[in-house]
UniProtKB/TrEMBL annotation:
It holds the Pfam family Peptidase_M23. Gene3D superfamilies: 3.10.450.350, Glucose Permease (Domain IIA). The keyword Metal-binding applies. Keywords: Hydrolase, Metal-binding, Metalloprotease, Protease, Zinc. One of its GO terms (biological process) is proteolysis. Its cofactor is Zn(2+). GO terms for molecular function: metal ion binding; metalloendopeptidase activity. CDD domains: M23_peptidase. The keyword Transmembrane does not apply. InterPro entries: Cell_wall_metabolism_enzyme (IPR050570), Dup_hybrid_motif (IPR011055), M23ase_b-sheet_dom (IPR016047). The lineage of its organism: unclassified sequences, metagenomes, ecological metagenomes. Residues 188-284 form the M23ase beta-sheet core domain. This is M23ase beta-sheet core domain-containing protein.
Amino acid sequence: MSSDGRAKQLNNIYPGDQFKISLDDNHNLKKIIYKPVSANPMIITYSKKRFRFLTINVQPTAGITHSTIVITKSLNYDAKEFGIEAEIIKLMVDNFSWELDFRRDLSKGDKFILAWNGSDKPLAMIYVGNRRTISLFSYKDAKGKTNYYQVNGKTLNDSFFFAPLKYDRISSGFQKRRFHPIKKTWKSHRGTDFAAPQGRPIYAAAKGIIRHVAVLSGYGNVVYIDHGTHLTTVYAHMARFEKGLRSGHRVSKGQVIGYVGSTGMSTGPHLHYEIRVDGVHKDPEKYSPPKQLNVPQGSMAEFVRVAKEVLAKLNI
Ligand SMILES: [Zn+2]
């Protein structure tokens, strides 16, 4: 081991330093991940009776370290190549997907910067793209839960309207089985029907990215909006779409996306509204999506101070 200069680092192991040891299928040593408290992590691999040392590229910046992932293919691919753990990649995707369409918005050369201060989760996650920068900072709330907040103290997700229009009444609720008035068969009704006059505006229930603008036989004129990676809302039977609405567009909460109608399989003007979580239909009358969170007023000054310090240290 002494043949590699980096191995000398192992002569000085301190309390708190972490080792993760992985074995192959034959229980032979495959890899050791060494995470010292005060230096860059190191991956030690063993094959063909040789140890190899790879220091993970994190650059120390006065008290914090940071890793810069440069996009060549996709966040998932490049972060994995860089050695970022799956759990952290998921954290990045869950947060940034509220503002970024990973299929369309990322370009080669865009960067994700993770700033670390010794804990398991990054202190900050920053996207630096051609056109915009999105900076998120960790904050642990009174319940001990860490979330990521913008410098304005708000999480990147959005709170939802209960109903995405001014409706007269709920004409049909979410039901596992109901007798379909047109098909004359028992069928589940996996959304809420809001009765409203023809032509009344329909709003995006929360900010998101338009996934589909489509004309389908059952749903008629229908819009699908993705809100982050887990939530999708569906708006069916529209008379017409708002002009210029295209898939891939970002919409804000309350933005008009179309107008009440009775297109597709429908008996009268209403909005058929669905909420899906990871593809599973939820009852919009009962299910409340997670709300946008705020850093408490009393903690804002300190939160902003740390956020600005991180940005300054990273030259952002
Ligand atoms: Zn319906």
